[in-house]
TrEMBL record:
It is found in: Cell membrane. One of its GO terms (molecular function) is outward rectifier potassium channel activity. Its main location: membrane. It catalyses: K(+)(in) = K(+)(out). The gene is Kcnk12. Gene3D superfamilies: 1.10.287.70. It comes from Crypturellus soui. The keyword DNA repair does not apply. InterPro entries: 2pore_dom_K_chnl, 2pore_dom_K_chnl_THIK, K_chnl_dom. This is KCNKC protein.
């Protein structure tokens, strides 16, 4: 090795991807083992009971097994088409069709209603292509606004705590250019606090929806909680489906409440999943850094000798502050080649660094206090996709622990 070097972005991404793929494979294998151990005995016992019942029915009523099996196949086909012994609501009237398209574009896909005609299947392909894309965009916009709302509330609580502790001037106003308040410089809401708030909101929403389903559908509370998670997470097994009976008490009110609960639940769980994915990404980055430190102990020792006591290196003062991702990567790249030399910084460079740091902190304080305007200036040397796309980019721009400096 010729010196301690950080992994390139391509290698870091590949390493993170391979590590995540290995963890997902191990997670899937562990889950398959657990579910196989839990459900396989019950499945074998149920199959044994059904075979015994089938032979007893054939013997008592003097019906041959082939004829009985043919009748049961016809019943299964009717059940797949939505025909039940008890009266159910029409599947393809307007409320039923609206329920169907809602499960399509949200990728829930219960499966209790499927198009039977060729024209319906072809139209579903085109309809789902644009519908799912638009719904994912809606989920991302919901994520951006819920994070902005939580950031505004947490910002107000943070300022209130600072005023009580005397660290914030009483006449401080949002949008003012006070750069001397160190506790507000570079402040962003914690990803763990946001995850906790979204988790509490998701649990509360699921408990309220489960109480409604228990009272109206007649399910037990555990089955209602199970249905809420399967539906809100867009897994959509279809073993339990709400609002399928022909008649309900206060039917219009229940259908409206069911729609609101499913919409809010899917949006909330989607946001929570993205926050949890950020935490998982941080764990992967921590594991990769541990691997990087252990793979080359000689480089680790050489880099430790470079960091001499009382030596001020370029960018050291910048790394002491909580600077966001947008500004951290821009100014660290200019001095990356000189950080490895361990040389003392000149007074002129230190003064320039302080001026740049002060300007960055003033700009960030103003943007944070005003709610992060959309037209935030970014590095013009980077392309439009350098900061990430989609929900991950939203979380990187809004939360603190996603920064590389953390």
């Amino acid at each position: 090795c010729r010196g301690r070097r950080r992994l390139s972005p391509l290698n870091e991404d590949n390493g993170r991807f391979l590590l995540l793929a290995a963890l997902i494979a191990a997670y899937l294998s562990a889950g398959a083992s657990v579910f196989s151990a839990l459900e396989s005995p019950s499945e074998a016992a149920a199959q044994l009971r059904w075979n015994r019942t089938l032979h007893n029915f054939s013997r008592i009523f003097n019906i041959s097994l082939p004829e009985l099996r043919a009748f049961l196949r016809s019943y299964e086909a009717a059940m797949a088409a939505g025909i039940r012994v008890d009266a159910l609501r029409p599947r393809w009237d307007f409320p039923g069709a609206f329920y169907f398209v809602g499960t399509v574009v949200s990728t829930i896909g219960f499966g209790m209603t499927t198009p039977a005609t060729v024209a319906g299947k072809v139209f579903l392909i085109v309809y789902g292509l644009f519908g799912c894309a638009g719904t994912i965009l809606f989920f991302n916009l919901f994520l951006e606004r819920i994070i902005s709302l939580l950031a505004f509330i947490m910002k107000a609580c943070h300022e209130r705590q600072l005023r009580r502790s005397g660290l914030l001037p009483p006449n401080f106003q949002r949008g003012s250019a006070i750069a001397g308040v160190g506790s507000l410089v570079g402040w962003k809401p914690s990803v763990y606090h946001v995850m906790l708030i979204l988790g509490i909101f998701a649990i509360t929403l699921s408990c309220c929806a489960s109480a409604m389903y228990t009272a109206v559908e007649g399910w037990n509370y555990i089955d209602s909680l199970y249905y809420c998670f399967v539906t809100f997470s867009t897994i959509g097994f279809g073993d339990l489906v709400s609002s399928q009976n022909a008649v309900y008490q206060n039917q219009g009110l229940y259908r409206f409440g069911n729609f609101v609960f499913i919409l809010m639940g899917v949006c909330c769980i989607y946001s929570l999943f993205n926050v949890i994915s950020i935490v998982i990404k941080q764990v992967l980055n921590w594991v990769l850094k541990k691997f990087e430190c252990r793979c080359c102990p000689k480089c680790h020792k050489s880099s430790a000798r470079l960091g001499r006591r009382n030596a001020i290196t370029p960018g050291a003062r910048l790394r002491r502050h909580n600077i966001s991702v947008e500004t951290d990567g821009q100014y660290d790249s200019d001095t990356e080649g000189r950080r490895l030399s361990g040389e003392m910084i000149s007074m002129r460079e230190l003064t320039a660094s302080n001026k740049v740091s002060l300007a960055i902190l003033q700009k960030q304080l103003s943007e944070t206090a005003n709610g992060y305007p959309r037209n935030v200036c970014v590095n013009t040397r980077q392309n439009g996709f350098s900061a990430g796309v989609g929900a991950l980019a939203i979380m990187n721009n809004r939360l603190a622990e996603t920064s590389d400096s953390r």
